[in-house]
Design a protein that fits this description.
By secondary structure, the protein is mainly α. It has 15 helices and no strands. Helix 6 runs antiparallel to helix 7 and helix 9 packs antiparallel against helix 10. It is rod-shaped and about 215 Å long. It starts with a helix and ends with a helix.
């Protein structure tokens, strides 16, 4: 009313006087309603605090959209409560207190990211499990394990970057699921280094068995025993390769293994022993022939030639034999054959008979 009275005063006839009357009037209104202006200022401070808090929340990329919205809703609720408290305040002091409490309450909204850290933790757990799995694999060398773990680590890092870039709970969950699956997919084949080494040992064994089989000085039993020895050495070599933990150790185990397999060089026993028995029988027979003075030199030569032929035939039979039993049989037959040479003197008895006949006549 004071403002209107001043403006409607008939003595106010110039613009300057009118402006002065308006200013005086608004000042008077302000003086009559000091709390209303105070409250507006306080509410403005609450709005400013809310805007600042919302900007901070929006800038926090550790939060998903849902987490940001929840935090901003919380801040908004605190701001609304603060404004209500300001409206209910009846004194300047009460308005100031409500404003201070309100801005503090709004500023206290500090949301903790939950979705993205949980997703990243799932990636870390998948990586930890994968590394343990790789470390437990004896079929990989240290170098191969290291390469596989580096691959898994790179996949985990990429997954966490995708989680960081996700903006919603759903996209974070998708990035987590894809990331865990990607890390778990790291499953290197059995060590190529070890596989190659074992193949080299197998090739050495195959070659050695072929050499053993081609050695006709050996009986089937001797071949079987030699191949069994070579197989045992090959198996030991492959076990050493499995135990090797580095590429160099695998190479060394392969070298040692092939050398061990190649060292199997069986010495024939059965056939040489059988042949010696034939030779001994032949020598004994020759000695017996030589000691038989009823025989002429020519008859001795003929008899020894017969014994020699039987001995040679026996040795050929021994060479052709493939088993220990067959060798023994060939030896027995051979010595019997050689021993069967018992030449009958012809020349001397005939001469003596001629002498006897002459005496009688």
């Amino acid at each position: 009313m004071k403002a209107l009275t001043a403006i409607n005063d008939n003595s106010v006839t110039t613009k300057t006087a009118l402006d002065n009357a308006k200013t005086s009037g608004t000042t008077a209104i302000s003086n009559d309603n000091p709390v209303a202006t105070k409250k507006d200022t306080a509410k403005a401070a609450i709005d400013t605090a809310l805007r600042e808090k919302e900007a901070v929340i929006d800038a926090n990329n550790a939060l998903t959209t849902e987490e940001k919205n929840a935090a901003k809703a919380d801040a908004q609720a605190k701001a609304t409560a603060a404004k209500t408290a300001i409206d209910n305040a009846t004194t300047n002091a009460a308005v100031d207190s409500a404003k201070t409490s309100g801005t503090t309450s709004v500023s206290s909204v500090t949301p903790t990211a939950a979705t993205k850290p949980a997703a990243k933790n799932a990636i870390d757990e998948a990586l930890k499990a994968k590394e343990a799995q790789l470390d437990a694999r004896a079929d990989l060398t240290d170098e191969e394990k290291k390469a596989a773990k580096a691959d898994a680590q790179a996949r985990a890092t990429a997954a966490k970057a995708a989680i960081d870039n996700a903006t919603t709970n759903a996209t974070v969950d998708n990035a987590k699921t894809s990331g865990v699956a990607d890390v778990e997919s790291v499953n290197p084949q059995a060590s190529q280094k070890k596989t190659d080494a074992k193949n080299a040992v197998d090739e050495a064994l195959k070659a050695k068995e072929a050499v053993i089989d081609a050695n006709n000085d050996l009986t089937a039993e001797e071949k079987a025993k030699a191949k069994e020895d070579a197989k045992a050495k090959a198996d030991a070599a492959k076990q050493a390769i499995d135990r090797a933990t580095t590429n160099d150790a695998v190479t060394q185990a392969k070298t040692d293994g092939t050398t061990s397999v190649n060292s199997v060089n069986p010495t024939a026993q059965a056939k040489p022993a059988a042949k010696k028995a034939i030779d001994d029988a032949l020598k004994a027979k020759n000695d017996a022939i030589d000691a038989n003075n009823d025989l002429t030199d020519e008859e001795k030569t003929t008899a020894k030639a017969d014994a020699k032929a039987k001995a040679d035939a026996a040795k050929k039979a021994i060479d052709k034999a493939t088993t220990n039993d067959a060798v023994t049989q060939a030896k027995t037959d051979g010595t019997t054959s050689v021993n069967s040479v018992n030449p009958t003197a012809e020349a001397k008895p005939a001469a003596k008979k001629a002498i006897d006949d002459a005496l009688k006549s």
